[in-house]
Predict the structure.
Amino acid sequence: MPHYKIAIVGAGPAGYFAAQALQNSVTEDLTFSIDMIERLPTPWGLVRSGVAPDHPKIKTVSKVFEKIANQPGFRLFGNVELGKDISLEDLTNKYDAVVMATGSSIGKKLGIPGEDLPNSISASEFVPWYNGHPDFKDFKIDLLGKVAVVIGAGNVAMDCGRMLAIDPKELDETDSADHALNALHKSNIRKVFITGRRGAEFAAFTAPELRDLPKLEHTDVYINADAIALAYKNAEAKGEVEKHLASNLEAMKAVIEVPKQGHERSLEFLFSHTPKEILGQDKVEAIVYSTPDGDVTIPCDLVITAIGYVPEVIPGIHFESGKIANIDGRVIGSNIYTVGWAKRGPSGVIGTNKSDAADVVQLLISDLKEPKQAGDISELLKSNHEIVDQPYWVRINEAEVAAGEVRGKPRVKAVSVADLLRLGQP
Ligand SMILES: Cc1cc2nc3c(=O)[nH]c(=O)nc-3n(C[C@H](O)[C@H](O)[C@H](O)COP(=O)(O)OP(=O)(O)OC[C@H]3O[C@@H](n4cnc5c(N)ncnc54)[C@H](O)[C@@H]3O)c2cc1C
């Protein structure tokens, strides 16, 4: 009975869904050992370090991941980085197939003057900072000023804007990192703009996120009614308004219709604002936009760019147009496959990765030949390497959840690798 060894690199949604698709393909004549390799001591990818803390329901998908991890033949190798602790060649030699599920984690740059001024930062720094990603535990952000600008018209921009604009009390019962929660409690930011380059009809927000905005208890949300009327007009001029766009525009209209309470905190959406230059002497002081009505300068103290991600370079992997070079998930001329944001680029919600991974796994299975007899990753790592296997991770997870229970939170995250490893010691 053929038995194949598959390495999956990256323990985010795409990696788990690839593992699940392999598990679902097991028959009497086809079985798999799955080794999942993750550079952090914690799995779940952006479900832990991306999804906003005030959206805890989204994170319940982690229960599905844990079920996958508990199936026979699955092993977690956390705290193991491809390109540092092991090489791609090691994996391709030892495994019948290698599935790259490494995501896309570096913030895209605007390429405008002033972008490198202090307090002009990227969502790819701000988000993992408030979510307790170990790489960003010492990240510094100055929240002393009153006005913040978020550049981008997608859900990541919305998360960043909301995190700055809501009353931090609303985050007390979430799993936001303690360092971020402390900083947000001291924050002077009271006015937040989210700005999109094009009209509202092109915004990439999704309707459920927009529909949440009127529920904010301590923040008034503003969208210009003329901008929405224009978006309807422009969309209708092209024919029937597509369903997704219609529900987005409806959700924006609902925001406009909510009576404003005169809160000290506000979140305002501006469309057709193309960033031109960030101004400031020693740090951000203002941003200049070009708009259909001419240049507009908004004085501000913090700029966060949320305009997409590019993948981190991994030795031995060829990247093309912001993703691993692939055809339908196959890396041509190798036993390497790719899924998730590494394969498609940074678009799609958690669920998108499921059907996508299932399609790639079908191709992978159809390509399998004679199984290799070449050992596995445990022979590749140094004998003193601290591997976070599934039981080790379960101990970390339980310790974080227990610390959270005392404080009425889902968990209290440990934010350094050393602390995480300590938490999981038997
Ligand atoms: C800020 C933000 C908020 C989001 N909010 C939502 C939401 O509310 N709802 C929703 O449905 N979707 C949301 N998404 C989208 C969702 O997170 C993605 O669709 C999904 O995480 C992509 O999965 P992935 O497995 O491809 O990548 P990731 O989740 O990024 O996982 C990649 C994993 O690979 C690991 N890795 C990288 N390099 C290496 C290496 N060299 N060696 C070993 N491991 C490595 C990383 O540490 C990471 O754990 C959000 C995305 C972002 C950025």
In short: The first strand starts at residue 3 and ends at 9. The chain has two domains: 3-105+311-388, 106-309.
